[in-house]
Amino acid sequence: QAKAAGRNRLVFFDPQMQADVMARATMENELRIAVNEQQFELFYQVQVDGNRRATGAEALLRWHHPVKGWVRPNDFIPLAEETRLILPIGQWVLQSACQQLAVWGRRSETEHLTLAVNVSALQLAQADFVEQVLATVERTEANPNRLKLELTESLLASDIDTIISKMDALRAKGISFSLDHFGTGYSSLAYLKRMPIEQLKIDQSFVRDILLDHNGNIIPKTIVALGKSMGLTVIAEGVETEAHWRLLVEMGCSAHQGYLFGHPMPVEEFEKSLSPVDLSRG
Ligand code: C2E
Ligand code: MG
Ligand code: MG
């Protein structure tokens, strides 16, 4: 039967598998349309210091799907990476984030805010990544000292020398780096020492566990100590309750992000949440 269908044709024997392949193809098409029609938006989630004051935000990508509504990145970033659509998407993210940062930089109430932007390994691997970022910063007139790029540690494994030289070039222009999902990958301490990073980000899976028992403390405590000894700041993400927050502060963690302080939200809402003063007045 399969042979009769021809050598070069895919033959589906499993209806579920066929359905999966079709769904994937549909989503890939929709993602291409989304890129062309710019169906994306950045949401902003506040980051606070030990006194609970807002120091900045992380930009989190949302896809406004014409039928499904808001789609979160975990449901489309993997496919975007497979299809390399993450490159134009990532460029859009960077451009939008820098535009927002420039707007904040022009108002005294918001000029202190930093903005963290997630960067995928595929973007970082582009030969012209440094030029792209610097051109975007210049074009938008964003302050590079307020821009923070979040890299995922497990994705830094290959071609580390090239990656470090790109990071050095951006760092020299004032841009800083944070290592996202820290502790979940397998970054070598030797690499960590060579990379010009400012911050370690404790993954939310570890934060969730800190109240469980004594053992739940070990990893966050170790990351905080590691950060201190290397002169890096440490930020905890996924902080959902006062109890989690208190414990993290006790551990010496100096920066925090999570639903306790604010959900990711559209920029107008984010700005309103910062202070009772209406910042939209110009
Ligand atoms: P991430 O960078 O680790 O972002 C943190 C995620 O945790 C966000 O999910 C955020 O909404 C969620 N979160 C924040 N506070 C809490 C909390 O208190 N509790 C819980 N349970 N979750 C919390 P989101 O927005 O769905 O993003 C998921 C991931 O998608 C991000 O993880 C990041 O790796 C990736 N991503 C997001 N935006 C971009 C982007 O512009 N480019 C790339 N390449 N990846 C992105
Ligand atoms: Mg992140
Ligand atoms: Mg994270």
Automatic annotation (TrEMBL):
GO terms for molecular function: catalytic activity. Residues 24-278 form the EAL domain. It comes from the Bacteria. This is EAL domain-containing protein. The chain holds residues 704 to 985 of 985 of the full protein.
